[in-house]
């Protein structure tokens, strides 16, 4: 009986499927609406190479981070606790601080972004005067954070419902553009050095468009609770992360290729200069009311689903910092911590959204190298140094992840200067 039960729990199931959709939702933020512009400007052939690289990059890096979380001697530990266990208290505080500041700015951007998206929709599509920004942003941000205070199953269910229409609309738009495809982009033949430079500069854009690392710690803990057994947990984590990488590749890259094949290199360059999303540019180009209605809806669904995943990561970082820096060592309930974090995020996101600063993009790009270090470099360093992770040594995949991490970090730093 025990054997048959183990066999049945090894199979792919609804719990894994729900997490695939959830991780997909975290990865597909507003960035996917700018990805075709950034990835397509270098031409068709570098885009093919990127498509081949992105699955192993996404899967192997997130698998390594998940294994790092699993390597704790205390099952159920989050990433901030595992860092302290392996690297000591000072390193634990430093990495937790970096982890928080890599994710928190993206949360600020999403709080601001969802307010701008809904405000724009009310004004442009519904033809109603712009509502009071402070009231609108408070309602939107409080609603999102309210969902995060519900239990895990409810939060996963709501994210699942958000992701279905997002997947459907991305697929529908990709197919809708097929009659408009042309070969203008494939007539570009970059030299080898141009091709390598395009790849180098675009890899960070791909990494962050497919990045679901803020949710990996919560995802790993959830899998541990569900399956109990370490080997079984690892199996389901591998299956779920492979599923996520595949779904991302199919839906996101099909959307990217469809947009890139519809527009000429000159049009992509124009969209970059205008600093508008690819859907806004397509709506203007074809004078199509459907695309102009779908554009804010996709942005709303993408930002909302991605907000949830980033909130989990930022909350983990904030609570980890609080626990590491507090002098009073009395136990504190998880519920109190969650409510305290919710109040902090509500006030900080609301304040930033009312101000509506333009510097947010810069903060996000500064968070980029930190995310790449935590996602690509830290787990590889742990495989070399942490006894609990030694069994993963000597794999070619480790070299690949390290090299890709270094490329991503160097390209982001180059882009800043």
TrEMBL record:
<keyword id="KW-1003">Cell membrane</keyword>
<keyword id="KW-0812">Transmembrane</keyword>
<keyword id="KW-0769">Symport</keyword>
<dbReference type="InterPro" id="IPR004694">
    <property type="entry name" value="Hydroxy_aa_transpt"/>
</dbReference>
<feature type="transmembrane region" description="Helical">
    <location>
        <begin position="20"/>
        <end position="37"/>
    </location>
</feature>
<feature type="transmembrane region" description="Helical">
    <location>
        <begin position="91"/>
        <end position="111"/>
    </location>
</feature>
<keyword id="KW-0029">Amino-acid transport</keyword>
<dbReference type="Pfam" id="PF03222">
    <property type="entry name" value="Trp_Tyr_perm"/>
</dbReference>
<keyword id="KW-0472">Membrane</keyword>
<feature type="transmembrane region" description="Helical">
    <location>
        <begin position="366"/>
        <end position="384"/>
    </location>
</feature>
<feature type="transmembrane region" description="Helical">
    <location>
        <begin position="290"/>
        <end position="314"/>
    </location>
</feature>
<dbReference type="InterPro" id="IPR018227">
    <property type="entry name" value="Amino_acid_transport_2"/>
</dbReference>
<protein>
    <submittedName>
        <fullName>HAAAP family serine/threonine permease</fullName>
    </submittedName>
</protein>
<keyword id="KW-0813">Transport</keyword>
<feature type="transmembrane region" description="Helical">
    <location>
        <begin position="161"/>
        <end position="179"/>
    </location>
</feature>
<feature type="transmembrane region" description="Helical">
    <location>
        <begin position="396"/>
        <end position="416"/>
    </location>
</feature>
<keyword id="KW-1133">Transmembrane helix</keyword>
<feature type="transmembrane region" description="Helical">
    <location>
        <begin position="131"/>
        <end position="149"/>
    </location>
</feature>
<feature type="transmembrane region" description="Helical">
    <location>
        <begin position="339"/>
        <end position="360"/>
    </location>
</feature>
<feature type="transmembrane region" description="Helical">
    <location>
        <begin position="241"/>
        <end position="263"/>
    </location>
</feature>
<feature type="transmembrane region" description="Helical">
    <location>
        <begin position="43"/>
        <end position="61"/>
    </location>
</feature>
<keyword id="KW-0997">Cell inner membrane</keyword>
